[in-house]
Design a protein that fits this description.
- By secondary structure, this protein is α/β, with parallel strands linked by helices.
- The chain folds into two domains: 71-137; 140-428, Rossmann fold (3-Layer(aba) Sandwich).
- It contains twelve helices and 16 strands.
- α1 packs parallel to α3.
- The longest helix has 18 residues, at 369-386.
- The radius of gyration is 23 Å and the shape is globular.
């Protein structure tokens, strides 16, 4: 097929795309987890492969975010950037207007890939003739146990005190450190967060603020940067700035592709540290590629280990060595029963019955490794305000080496508990 013929196919009416047997996604049920199709590999020239690929996505359009219902999707990663760039150029020529329904194809430039419905991924990888690989665009969930009660006690939460953050505030409050929080958004009207929030981005609806419709993201943001000493609560780094990246819906669910887009936004907008209080059992190559890109761009990711109480196994992305993997402790300084644990854990932090900000200006107790992760992110903001320019590797080393040994730790390689005072002492010795 000639290049002109491929161009014609991209420009033809979308009704003809239906006639050629291509799917046109209008949404997908979250209960239906994707099943990875095989990715055939047979030899062919780049020109012919890209022309066939043009036909394979004819009738698809850009999705600004996941629809309300989720279903089977795949991430197709191109092996050659020239192929990827030419494919996107051809696809955009034939893409329909933005007023059509959600679904279809989502470019993922950070990892040289696209996300699309599973049926179209199979056709696309077949047409690309071994020039692309695909994997499941798997669901990802925020990490917290069932919600606790709304609380009226405020002030400095026990977790913030336990890690000795208040002792550091005479030297550092995290002033202007940029913290990306990839989560469910944030309650922009919460009085505790009013002076701690920047615009961020809503990946589900880019025309809207990343407003929280779940509560999880607001809770995370409060632990990191709440700053309402007189009438509310104080977080670990009260003068750091939260950049909410809404990648999760009201159920606390997203796709790997949403997380990839969130990481890309954080890298492009020069976040200093990124909080990722969510996880998945599946090891995603696409997510690993995005995490690697952030790490080598100087952006450190802090991730939760999961709440199933597993021993020797933690969730991803915490399982990737380029992140700081966080487990949870309770008020007695022991490892919380619910936390996943393994030798891959880098640090433990308070995560049991943590009081923080909630929707509609309220406060709520929650438990989980999500809550522990936000303590670590806040501590890193304090560190970076005092010593900007530290690399992700340096930060990780400082946090781990400054940890307090856990009394309940049985294995000699068990990570310790977060301690801000010791972190600052370690920095003074650099």
């Amino acid at each position: 097929m000639t290049r002109d013929a491929a161009y014609f196919l991209l420009k033809r009416p979308h009704s003809q795309a239906f006639a050629s047997g291509l799917s046109y996604s209008r949404g997908y049920g979250r209960e239906a987890r994707p099943v990875a199709p095989s990715c055939p590999a047979h030899s062919s020239g780049r020109e012919a492969a890209l022309e066939d690929a043009s036909q394979a996505v004819d009738g698809l359009h850009e999705s600004p975010g996941p629809p309300k219902e989720y279903g089977r999707r795949q991430i197709v990663r191109f092996l050659d950037r020239r192929d990827y760039e030419r494919f996107l150029q051809q696809w955009r020529i034939g893409a329909p207007s933005s007023g059509e329904p959600n679904g279809g194809i989502r470019p993922l430039p950070l990892i040289q890939a696209v996300s699309c419905p599973a049926d179209d991924a199979l056709r696309l990888t077949s047409a690309l003739a071994g020039k692309a690989v695909c994997e499941e665009d798997a669901p990802v969930w925020t990490r917290a146990l069932p919600k606790g009660a709304i609380v009226t006690d405020k002030g400095i939460p026990w977790g913030v005190r336990r890690i000795q953050a208040p002792q550091a505030w005479g030297r550092t409050t995290g002033y202007r450190v940029k913290v990306g929080v990839i989560d469910t958004g944030v309650d922009y009207g919460h009085p505790d967060l009013r002076h701690s929030l920047e615009r961020g981005i809503n990946l589900l609806n880019r025309m809207a603020l990343p407003q929280d419709d779940n509560g999880h993201g607001t809770h995370i943001a409060g632990t990191i940067a709440a700053a309402n000493e007189l009438q509310g609560m104080i977080g670990v780094a009260p003068r750091s700035m939260i950049y909410p990246v809404k990648a999760f819906d009201h159920n606390g669910t997203a796709y790997v592709s949403d997380i990839v887009l969130g990481i890309e936004w954080c890298v492009r907008n020069h976040m200093d540290v990124v909080n990722m209080s969510f996880g998945m059992r599946t090891k995603s190559r696409s997510l690993l590629s995005a995490v690697n890109h952030a790490y080598h761009s100087g952006v450190l990711i802090v991730a939760s280990s999961g709440n199933e109480g597993r021993v020797g196994d933690i969730d991803y992305p915490a399982g990737f060595g380029q992140t700081i993997a966080v487990g949870a402790t309770n008020r007695t300084g022991r490892i919380a029963k619910f936390t996943n644990r393994s030798s891959l854990i880098d640090i433990y932090a308070p995560g049991d019955r943590i009081m923080s900000s909630w929707l509609k200006g309220k406060h709520r107790e929650m438990s989980g490794t999500s809550m522990a992760t936000s303590h670590v992110t806040g501590a890193i903001a304090l560190l970076l305000s005092l010593r900007p320019g530290l690399s992700p590797g340096q930060i990780k080393s400082i946090v781990k080496n400054a940890a307090v040994p856990l009394r309940s730790a049985k294995a000699p390689r068990t990570a310790g508990e977060l301690n801000v005072t010791r972190i600052l002492s370690a920095v003074d010795q650099l």
